[in-house]
Amino acid sequence: MTTWEESRMSAITRRSLVIAGGTVLAAPALAQNADWPSKEIRLIVSVAPGGGADLVARQVARVIAQDTGGTVVVRNIVGGSGLTGMAEMASSPPDGYTLSLVNIGSLLVLPHIMQVPFSWDDLAFLGGISQNYYGVAVAANSPWQTFGDMIATGKTRRITYACATIMNGVALVQAGNQSGARFRLVNTQTDAEAITQTVGGFVDIAMTSSTVLLPMLQSQRLKLLAVTPARWPNMPDIPTVKEAGYNGETVVPLGFACPAGVPAPIRARFEAAILKAARDPATVEMLTRTINMPKPMTGAEFRHALFSQAPTIEAMLAEAGMKRR
């Protein structure tokens, strides 16, 4: 048994939520799958129950159940930095009974660090729901008052930024490439550690999501220099990185995929249900309340939002010495 397989067996934790679509109705005829769905549909989530991504997945599951007249089971498969759940989906039969919330790191980061048992071509992207808001935060006593101040310093010395997920720092790297400012990633185990190191003065910047930063901003232990990819609804006076004059943007969309061989009519049903869920008032309210940006995307748009970042992420990993040879 390989190391990955051993990790998969030991790390998987499962929790199921069965969501019934009310009275089970016959699905509309599909060209190749007239009886679909004839059994429960499994929606895999690579994070533990109760978090924001998990709640979004359950909302989507409800809409799929309603639209198909079937039953959707949300199954949390946690382990391997999100790889375990994604591998489970990618290796499932392409029969339209398995889809998953996409773990972005499994596509953009892990393949450069370790052997991954699937590729982009093994997946069919079904659509997106939302994007995270991110902030460039510094300690309250930092001499920098603006993003421009920080860039000016970065032209004279390398600036350190901490984050638990390497994609968070894309906006900084892009701004540095444009301006000549230099940045160095300090990859932490958790977002809380990134904040602690910033408050303690061990690194210059915490680059993480609005939900993580907000308590420290409210307690005035951190301050924001800029945000990305759009202004936060609860702190509308802070400019974006682009508004500060630099072509940088961190885009981390939340969306879904299934095995590539799933018949096109079924994929179309999934995609329609995901777009419907993304526009549903209950979904929009939940996302807004948790300071996430509603962002309905088709399958093609979702794939492009991810794939367009691949070269930048690869370069960041190489710069940080994390890319395997």
UniProtKB/TrEMBL annotation:
Question: Entry's InterPro entries?
Answer: BUG (IPR005064), Bug_dom1 (IPR042100)
Read off the SUPFAM superfamilies from this record. Answer: Periplasmic binding protein-like II
Q: Which domain of life is it from?
A: Bacteria
Q: To which protein family does this belong?
A: Belongs to the UPF0065 (bug) family.
- Name the UniProt record assigns to this protein: Tripartite tricarboxylate transporter substrate binding protein
The protein's organism comes out as Falsiroseomonas bella
